[in-house]
Amino acid sequence: MSQKEAEEWSYNQWMEVTLLVSILGTHAPTPNFYRNPRIIDRISVSFDDIHEVQGNQTLLSEEDCQRIGEFILNHVDQVETIVIHCSTGESRSAAIAFAVCRLLGLDDRWIFESPKYSPNTYCVKKLNRVLELGLSEEEIVSRFEYKKRH
Questions:
Q1: Domain total for the chain?
Q2: Are 18 and 84 contacting, i.e. CB atoms less than 8 angstroms apart?
Q3: Alpha-carbon gap, residue 30 to 44, rounded angstroms
Q4: C-alpha distances in angstroms, 82 versus 6, 20, 144?
Q5: pTM for the complete prediction?
Q6: Taking the CB of residue 146, how many other CB atoms lie within 10 A of it?
Q7: Domain span at 84
Q8: Nearest Cα to 20, choosing from 28, 30, 29?
Q9: What local confidence, expressed as pLDDT, does residue 15 receive?
């Protein structure tokens, strides 16, 4: 989801018990989330929607991959929903959603099949490698090729 949608969503008093994964650009301002007691924990990670370093932008790091993986696995039994947002809700958040699905043994193909999402290729490959999500390079390429064909 986009940052704006996530900020509006945080005011929902009827939400399920939730984890929030907040992905910010390196130089982006901090989102203004309501302190909803149904959001039991939140992680913020800063990296840009790029595939190689450009200027003063930042790539997703191995440390951030590990932090995200540990955060999800440490809290998954305590929540009903995991909300992931970035600025537009299309690329970086989709890549993190891919990793969350793989970590939890869920089908990740919907992310690649949905016209709403376009996962960041660099992030998908890095998360798959660092978190040992089990996809081969060919399987990752196949998911992105499906996206291009549809």
A1: 1
A2: no
A3: 9
A4: 12, 6, 24
A5: 0.92
A6: 12
A7: 3-149
A8: 30
A9: 82
Token look-up 């809290």 returns 75
Q: What is the CATH number of the domain that holds 140?
A: 3.90.190.10
Write out the two tokens for 17. Answer: 């018990």
Residue 94: predicted pLDDT? 97
Q: Which long-range contacts (CB under 8 A, 24 or more apart) does 48-57 make?
A: 49/25, 49/86, 49/87, 49/91, 49/92, 49/120, 50/122, 51/120, 51/121, 51/122, 52/122, 56/26, 56/27, 57/25, 57/26
**According to the model, what pLDDT value does residue 48 have?**
95
Model confidence over 60-117: pLDDT tens digits? Answer: 999 999 999 999 999 999 999 999 999 888 999 999 999 999 999 999 999 999 999 9
The amino acid at residue 119 is P
HSE-CB of 135 using CA atoms within 13 angstroms:
25
